[in-house]
Structures are given as C-alpha cells and as structure tokens.
C-alpha cells in the first residue's frame, strides 16, 4: 500500500531531550516536507526537500533539523525541544514539488508534547 | 511574506444546503491550488486541485478560481453531515496552506 509512515504517533518528552520523528514513504516521491499544525494557525511548513541531499527551510525552521540521505526517508530532529514545540506534526510527500498534478500525501501525524 | 487566508469559521450549514468556503492569496504569481479536507484528529486528504480560471466540478464539489481577484473557493452541494471537517486551501507552487475553515453540517 502506498503510504507515508511517520513514527511515533504520540510522544511526550521533557525540555532539552533530543528526539527524532521518523518519516518514510514508499512511493518513490522526490519531494518531502514537514509541517506543524497548531490551533488557529493551520499547517506551517518547517522544512522541505526537493530531492535527495537537498533541503530548504520553510516558514518555521527554528529549533528543527532535517536530513535527506535517502529518497524514502526524511527524519525531523529536535536537538533541544522546548514547550513551544508542542504541536501536531505531519510529514508529507509528493512525486514532484510545486506542481498542480502532484498533490501532497500526508502521514498520520505525530502529536508531540514537550514539558 | 506570502499569505493564504481563510475564514476560520466555524461555518454551519443545514444538511442539503450549499456550503461555500473561500480562500484568498497574496502572491499574484500563484498559479494553482489544492483543496484538502481534514477530519478531526486525522491527516489532510486531497479533494481537488484547480489551475485555470473558472469552475472545476467533481461530484458534489466545485472549485472556483479567480486569478484577477486572487481568490479560490470551494462549493459543496447537497452538504452531508459527513462533510463536517476542516477544509484547507493550499498554493501548489510552495505548498503553503491557509489556516483552514471548519465546516459543520447539521442534520
């Protein structure tokens, strides 16, 4: 089944403890992206990747890191999480970024709580 | 700063009515748009995309694009309680989303 898989679904951690949220897609998509979703603010892009080894900042990149060593994987790293990073996170992929015939496919989301 | 704006709602319509959801965008160079639906606690799912001025119909859904006025809208005909969700508008070129409009369809 074609899908975007992100893990874990739920994560509770403490301030400053490094964590990684994994994302993997099995559709051979070139484009991958991370979003956070907060009430009233909608989906805001954190980082995106047009292809392997190419990553760029989105609108809210502060406090996050990403890497794209392989086409299928795009992990999101929080080196030192803070409470303002408590949010719902979505990984998404598309065949090619920025084209109308290439919609985003979303993972199931990761709800992160930082205390 | 490029922006995509939506009325957060909630928008409430009776079952069987037409629900009208609107989205405006600031970047005049934006050419195409997605509409996604997101049920509470779930991930967004694609409803349709539009890139030409005018209307595009798919079943009960009609997307409308007016590039001169920089707005895109989604009409849902014969609204059903199962249409109750948040509807997200997105600009294709930079995958930028609006904050979404929460729709409630009352039986």
What can you see in these coordinates?
The complex is a heterodimer of chains A (115) and B (107). Chain A is mainly β. Helix content of chain A is 0%, strand content 50%. Chain A has no helices and eleven strands. In chain A, β4 and β5 (42-51) form a beta hairpin. Chain A is globular. Chain B has strands spanning 4-6, 11-14, 19-25, 33-38, 45-50, 54-58, 61-66, 71-76, 85-91, 96-97, 101-106. In chain B, strands 2, 4, 5, 9, 10 and 11 form a six-stranded mixed beta sheet that branches. In chain B, strands 1-3-8-7-6 form a five-stranded antiparallel beta sheet, with no helix packed on it. In chain B, β6 (54-58) and β7 form a beta hairpin. Chain B starts with a strand and ends with a strand. The mean pLDDT of chain B is 94. Chain A binds chain B through residues 33, 35, 40-45, 48, 59, 90, 92, 94, 97-101, 103-104, 106-109, and chain B through 6, 8, 31-34, 42-46, 49-51, 88, 90, 92-100.
Write the layout of secondary structure elements.
The complex is a heterodimer of chains A (115) and B (107).
Chain A: E1 4-7, E2 10-13, E3 19-25, E4 31-38, E5 42-51, E6 54-57, E7 65-66, E8 76-78, E9 87-94, E10 105-106, E11 110-114
Parallel strand pairs in A: 2-11
Antiparallel strand pairs in A: 1-3, 3-8, 4-5, 4-9, 5-6, 7-8, 9-10, 9-11
Chain B: E1 4-6, E2 11-14, E3 19-25, E4 33-38, E5 45-50, E6 54-58, E7 61-66, E8 71-76, E9 85-91, E10 96-97, E11 101-106
Parallel strand pairs in B: 2-11
Antiparallel strand pairs in B: 1-3, 3-8, 4-5, 4-9, 6-7, 7-8, 9-10, 9-11
